[in-house]
Design goal:
mainly alpha; globular
Length: 454
Amino acid sequence: MKNKKSTWTSILPFLIFVGLYLFVGIFLTAIGNKKGFYAMPASISVIVGIIFAFLIYRGTIDEKFNSLIAGCGDNNIIIMCLIFLLAGAFGSVTEKIGGVESTVNLGLRLIPSQFIVPGMFLIACFVCLAIGTSMGTIATIGPICITLAAKTGINPALLLGALLGGAMFGNNMSIIADTGIAITRILDIPIKEKFKLNLRTTGLAVIGTVILYFFFGNTGATTITDIGGYNLIKILPYIAVLVVSLMGVNVFVVLTMGIILAGGIGIYYGSFDILGFTGSIQTGFLNMFDVLIFSLLIGGLAAMVKDAGGIEWLNQKLRKIIVGQKSAKFVAMLLPGAVDASLANDTVTCVVTGPIIKEISDDYHIDRRKSGSLMHTTVCVLQSILPYGAQILLATSLTGGKVSPIAIIPYLWYGFLALGISILTIFIPFDERRKDRVKDQAVKADVKTELQAN
């Protein structure tokens, strides 16, 4: 199923998928549906796109099916889905044993009460880093923020802004976040290496954010009561997974180890028995069902679009605005940013745009880790800043309508700093090692020659 000439119709099935998802989300939001963009599963929109691909692409039915199945069964897609399952199981088991609750309560006890805002930001950073889901972090810590705002007189929009900022960081840096898994698998880069490079920019943003919250979020000495208890042993699985993963151990081994460790702790403390442990694992698997099915289907649609010449057509159009490595790096931010602004779904955005960013990175001799860092930071930040995004809507829903999404946006200081620093690294690559910069300079002449030849 190979079109001889790439035209705009080659990418039409993908545009139909995006357009349908966007139209339904906007329409449901406009009529007051609380779920908005999340009311209709993204997988349904992909299926519609696949149907159109079968209708308009050349070739026999068997050729089209072969292209679809080959895409669904791509090695990276299958590996990504298996990681999704293990990450879901780890999150479910650790939540069941009380790991999230212990982490939050420990943070509240360690942080001086007069520094609640920067403290809440740091707690959210660690919790999301550990559990890998911004939505889970917001749902868990959000009610605590509302309670603290009522007790201390702190602006709830400010506290929720700190919470969302911490969730942005954690989602960007966690090794078990679905967005990070998708990006590293599609770009074929070690998650450890992407983590280390990403930390050089997000770390600066975290420091700057803590300083800002320290000076503008200090409410003076205020005593906070009713802080729950914590158990250091129940926090251990998060720390173990983070440390072992940074040692370069295979992610399957890391997550399996984390699940077994959390399960052993849960059985010891009576959180569940063996059957309850296996049930929690199954619950985690089921929690990842939607993203797993979507990943398989989008992999199939992407293969069909690629075989029909759609990816090549899009690359040709993008190359008209790319004049070198700097502009190519901007595309690594702008393309995912535009798609996420349209879809309001960071995982969908990463799976859809990842193959394009990978090809651009290779063509313009850009370190894929750098492209992944730019791409991931952009979608994580935008996802929490969009007033119609699930994260900010969940946070505001916890206030019972007292705080609007627009009221929180001015306090999302981490997001603004992270985006600004990422853009700065395009011009001043201080986040890259010296040997990477030397290599980058060595290939610039080759890139220039290729551009002139084209």
